[in-house]
Design brief:
nine-stranded mixed β-sheet; 21% strand; 34% helix; single chain; Spore Coat Polysaccharide Biosynthesis Protein SpsA, Chain A; alpha/beta
């Protein structure tokens, strides 16, 4: 038996764990799974599907509490393969997709962090994807990636996900992918590249977009802009974002919430650890 090369790092909580068996491929030597199950009460763990407990290629990790970025970091810490692909519990994978992902890792040793494509529930592109590869530092204006589109080589220089961002975080509901990729590119000097390769399919369209335009969304947006561009750069972009936003919130309120997010990050960085 050959050692697995790629791990699918699955984050789930509550009833979502019931969907995880759907994403498992027939067992193969080169693929493994790390499934992080977050829970609030111990009795919730009684609902774990038996297949996750008995499959030798599945590593189950239980984490009390919540926070998607916490879950991602936990999965990375338990990963024992050289390659990893982030996954949500609503994803489905085909053998050919995984073959292409592994082949892309093999073919591009210069790349540390990989950005792929995914399909929606109708087997259509999840969003508009460029046809040609590009380096993330020179990505098209306004382009961003969702977690299931991201894979990476597992190495010590890989940054953690910032646990102040993401679903389940105390104040900032999104933006963890942008901050992760920015930290990979800039702070850790890892090469981040996009390849027009389909990694998998989500079973529901619009994941993560239900709160766009809300105060929580704008707080997160302001925090992300501050992390990526500093105070001066963030303020200029927040003004533009507020003026161009089609949210029901007024530009003044949108800017106010973005400023709250920026100040939240500023104060958390200034606070003694």
């Amino acid at each position: 038996m050959t050692a697995a090369r790629l791990s699918l790092l699955v984050s789930t909580k509550g009833r979502g764990v019931q969907s995880v068996p759907t994403l498992l491929l027939p067992q193969r030597d080169d693929v493994a799974y790390v499934v992080v199950v977050q829970y609030d009460r111990p009795d919730e763990l009684n609902k774990i599907p038996d297949v996750l407990r008995v499959r030798p290629d599945v590593t189950l990790v239980f984490q009390q509490g919540k926070g998607l970025s916490r879950s991602r970091n936990c999965a990375i810490a338990h990963c024992r393969t050289p390659y990893a692909l982030l996954a949500d519990d609503d994803m489905i994978y085909r053998e050919s997709d995984i073959d292409n992902v592994i082949r892309t890792f093999h073919s591009h040793p210069e790349t540390d962090v990989f950005c792929f494509q995914i399909l929606n529930a109708r087997a259509e592109p999840y969003k508009h994807y460029p046809k040609a590869s590009f380096t993330y530092a020179r990505r098209p204006y306004g382009y961003f990636f969702n977690s299931p589109e991201i894979g990476f080589r597992v190495q010590d220089s890989l940054p953690c996900f910032d646990e102040r961002f993401g679903l389940g975080a105390p104040y900032l509901i999104c933006g963890e992918e942008e901050v992760f990729l920015h930290d990979s590119c800039r702070k850790n000097r890892l090469q981040v590249d996009y390849y027009p390769v389909v990694a998998g399919r989500t079973t529901r369209p619009g994941t993560g977009q239900s709160r766009a335009g809300t105060p929580e969304f704008f707080r997160s947006k302001g925090a992300v802009l501050y992390q990526l561009h500093g105070a001066a750069g963030a303020c200029l972009r927040m003004v533009k974002q507020a003026l161009l936003s089609r949210s029901a919130l007024s530009p003044i309120r949108s800017f106010k919430y973005m400023m709250q997010g920026m100040l939240y990050i500023f104060r958390s960085c200034a606070s003694p650890s």
